[in-house]
Design brief:
The protein is of the alpha/beta class and about 425 residues long. Helix content is about 40%, strand content about 20%.
Length: about 425
Amino acid sequence: MTYQETLDYLFNALPMYQRIGKSAYKANLDNTWALCNRLGNPQRMFKSIHVAGTNGKGSTSHALASILQEAGHKVGLYTSPHLKSFTERIKINGEEIEEEAVVNFVLKHRSFLEVLKPSFFEMTVAMAFDHFAAQKVDYAVIEVGLGGRLDSTNVIHPLLSIITNIGYDHMQFLGNTLSSIAREKAGIIKTGVPVVISESHPETRPVFEEVAGACQAPIYFADQQIAVEETTCQPEDGYRGYSVTSAAGRSDYRMDLMGDYQKKNLAGILVAIEVLRDRVPGLSEEAVVRGLSRIVRNTGLKGRWQKLGDKPLVFCDTGHNAEGIKMIVAQLKSIPHDCLFLVLGMSNDKDLAPVLSLLPQEARYVFCEAKLPRAISAEALQAQAKAHGLEGRVVKDVNEALAQVLKEAGEHDVVFVGGSTFVVAELDNL
């Protein structure tokens, strides 16, 4: 099999939530355990850190991987979904898994896969664990795909669990209240394993305390231990500066991730590092400083408040739920501009009203759609947006939509592309 034939097999033979949505979701870990047993339980052959949450888990995972790299370790990083290439999901010290390794994994285990019929995500998790074990990584940062308790990644026994925050997303699987969603995310908490909660909330804190208590797991609410304030923003240099105050005193850091929401992630990242210091050698302050300032360079992270152009300023971001969009809109409004253009596409399996109600009515909209069955049609999105006072036209392809906007926009305007991870993924110049 060629690499392309292998991808075609994986995408077509195995149910893929990214493409088809709910029907690809497996509400148990049976297939993952079967795959891990087939592979000799590779998840037990490296030390790991498990990261869940509604928003911020991807940025947090990449930041921790960057810091561990700067501390001199060989670090695996598993994240999802990918934006451009399947191999983005599985990295070691920023290097994506080789295409040949993907082909060999499928060839070696194809007969078993066809009998077991795992989901695309279950297979990918097993592939990642197998790759990390074979390459003898020191540590692996494992990002939860969806929820926590029943997520395929939840077969690891990590050094540390992190839950970034809780918001309304994937409610068809996780529940309709913050407390019910929190309980699903809290499923990654293991007996005796410390857990860091990046953002505390009165509705979710009791859930986390209850589960952690039952598991005798030390729990840390990062935003109650650390105060983070932005000090500088240097977009021309690609950095944002933060002042951090804790019981240990005051420290300054720079992050090469430019989204306003990184301020919320930073507390959790820093408390996680403090918890890990007794378990992971080399986590000096210098490694933390370097790691936070080199996240993109060390890990290749894309799509988080990424600038795509100047005059007009063009940004994209993968934020897609109400909490993420609220932060994005606030950041867009903070940028001086004459006119704001939004190129938007969204998924069809979510309640869009909470997101659409947050968007500025004075902006100019172009509605597009990702080339996936899960995408809501641009026409349907246009109709729903109009009911919220948002006027715009339909241009189905995101790249064509952006090209048209760039012909209309002046050099003092701002253009944003987003609404869905999958819309951002289809941008040519990402």
